[in-house]
Structure formats: C-alpha cells, structure tokens
C-alpha cells in the first residue's frame, strides 16, 4: 500500500542507477507541488487508485499493464483510476521517470440515476432523525456533492444564506436557505462545528458512504443521485439553467442539461403554454 516515505536519494531511475518501482515513485509524487495542488478528496482518490497498479518497475509499466488494471475495476473506480493516472503519469513523464508516454484507457461512463421525489420524501421528512437523512436533506435543498455536505459548518450559515467552497472545483457559492431546510436546521441540537456529525466530529467520506449503503436499500440510487434530483426539482419549478448553475456550482450548461434530462417535460410544456400572453 502507498503511504511510506522514501528518501529522495533512492529516486534515481531516470539516470539508470536503480530499478525504481511504482510505489516508490508515487511516494515521490506525493511530495510534489502537483500533489499539493490537489484537493484532499482527490489525493485520497489518487492513492486508492494507484494501489490498483502492480508494484513493478516503472520502465515495465506499459499500456497493457495499465489497461489490465483499469479493466478489472467497476465503472466508478475505473474513472477514478483514469483521472489518477492522467495526473501521475503526466508528472512522471515531465520529471523523466517514465520514458514512454502511455495512452490511457478511455473513461467508461455509467450514468448515475436521479432519486425520485416520492422515494426521497420519507428521508426529507425524517431529516432530524439520523445523520444519513440529514445529509440527504442538505444535499437535496442545496444540490451539493457529498464531500461538500460533510464539510458544512454552522459558521457557514449567515442571514444571506449558506456559504460553500466546493472541494472539487473550488467554486464559491452563496446559497439561499430553503424554508424547509431552515426548519430542519432549527430543530437540530448543535454538538460540534459540523452540521452532519457523529460525537461532535466530522464524518470521513468513506465511512459515511458505508453507513449510507447500510441505511438505504440497494435498489435506490447512490447519494450523488440526490444532487441530480435537486437540479431536476429546480428545473421543474421553473428555474433557468443559469439559475441552477448558481446553486449547484456546475461549470457548463451541458453538465446541467445532463443532470436535468429527467425533468418532467410535459409539466414544463404546460407551464410554457400558460406563459403565453403574460406581461414581461
């Protein structure tokens, strides 16, 4: 497993002194400016992903080795592996450790389904009953990712709304608090700096995902499907694409369109017809 530290004097394979292995090089990558520029979530994801590569000499890692490691993973883990390899191998080539550029496996995509409102409603109604339901309600009423939900502190709330700096994109948002979410927050007892917490402490994202899967039937979508459900609810409520982006933090119109393609188009069409003749 990755995590041990190696003295830089051992990192000499670009001069042919030693046969440098993958985990040795990755430890060196973890001391680089490129690594420090990554979010903590990306660092954890990269570390998990690199452990899927065999700990063999760097000069022996080729397209076949990486393709085999990628093919053995499920779609979500496969995409994380590809993202990690892009950053890691680009750095290794620039530093001269990996002499042969590698064409990385193409990302496999599997669309995450959105939660249906009727399935989500019981969790929203019981948001004060458990950290799982509370996080789900926060995600629905703010359209944020799980990593950002778990990072929300009480001090992030002001009269203007909820301040969020997204961990993945670094996007800074100020989201007005929905009246139903305000009611949920008013009913909570503060036990620490974080809104979603256990014994006053913040949940690690991996630990929370395990608890989520134990609490939610496997037939229902993953947590990220709540973010999609939130975008769909805003679209069906008449919000424009740009308005949804101002809440969700999405960077492109295309991504918002992807998230909201499950919108009830018939309901929107009826609203569009009713809008004829209205004064602007």
What string gives the helices and strands in order? HHHHHHHHEEEHEEHHHHH
What is Rg? 22 Å
- Overall mean pLDDT stands at 86
Q: Termini separation (Å)?
A: 62 Å
The count of helical stretches stands at: 14
Content-based structural category? mainly alpha
Sheet of most strands: 3 strands, antiparallel
Considering DSSP H and I runs of 4 or more, what fraction of the residues is helical?
40-55%
> How many individual β-strands?
5
Shape: globular
Strand content: 5-15%
User: In what order do the strands lie side by side in the largest sheet?
Assistant: 1-2-3
Can you describe what's shown?
This protein has 280 residues and is mainly alpha-helical. It has 14 helices and five strands. The strands form two sheets. The chain has a three-stranded antiparallel β-sheet with strand order 1-2-3. A hairpin with a 2-residue loop joins strand 1 and strand 2 (161-165). Helix 3 crosses helix 5. 30% of the residues are buried.
Short structural summary:
With 280 residues, the chain is mostly helical. The chain is 49% helix and 5% strand. A hairpin with a 6-residue loop joins strand 2 (161-165) and strand 3.
Reconstruct the topology from this structure:
Elements: H1 22-29, H2 33-36, H3 40-50, H4 63-71, H5 75-95, H6 117-125, H7 131-142, H8 146-150, E1 157-158, E2 161-165, E3 172-175, H9 179-186, E4 197-198, E5 201-202, H10 205-215, H11 224-236, H12 241-248, H13 253-259, H14 265-274
Antiparallel strand pairs: 1-2, 2-3, 4-5
Keywords:
5 strands; disordered N terminus; three-stranded antiparallel sheet; two-stranded antiparallel sheet; 280 residues; 49% helix
């Amino acid at each position: 497993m990755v995590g041990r530290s190696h003295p830089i004097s051992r990192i000499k394979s670009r001069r042919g002194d030693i046969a440098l292995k993958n985990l040795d090089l990755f430890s060196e990558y973890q001391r680089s400016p490129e690594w420090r520029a990554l979010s903590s979530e990306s660092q954890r994801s990269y570390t998990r992903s690199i452990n899927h590569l065999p700990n063999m000499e760097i000069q022996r890692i080729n397209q076949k080795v990486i393709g085999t490691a990628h093919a053995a993973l499920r779609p979500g883990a496969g995409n994380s592996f590809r993202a990690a390899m892009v950053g890691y191998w680009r750095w290794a080539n620039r530093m001269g450790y990996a002499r042969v550029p590698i064409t990385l496996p193409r990302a496999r995509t599997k669309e995450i389904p959105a939660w249906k409102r009727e399935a989500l409603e019981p969790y929203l109604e019981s948001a004060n009953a458990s950290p799982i339901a509370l996080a789900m309600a926060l995600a629905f009423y703010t359209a944020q990712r799980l990593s950002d939900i778990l990072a929300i502190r009480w001090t992030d709330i002001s009269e203007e709304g909820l301040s969020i700096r997204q961990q993945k994109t670094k996007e800074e948002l100020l989201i007005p608090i929905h009246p139903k979410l305000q009611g949920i927050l008013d009913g909570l007892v503060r036990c620490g700096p974080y809104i979603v917490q256990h014994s006053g402490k913040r949940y690690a994202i991996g630990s929370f995902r395990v608890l989520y899967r134990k609490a939610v039937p496997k037939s229902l979508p993953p947590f990220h499907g709540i973010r999609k459900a939130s975008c769909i609810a805003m679209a069906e409520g008449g919000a424009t694409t740009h308005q949804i982006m101002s809440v969700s933090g999405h960077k492109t119109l295309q991504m918002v369109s992807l998230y909201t393609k499950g919108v009830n188009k018939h309901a929107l069409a009826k609203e569009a017809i009713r809008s004829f003749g209205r004064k602007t």
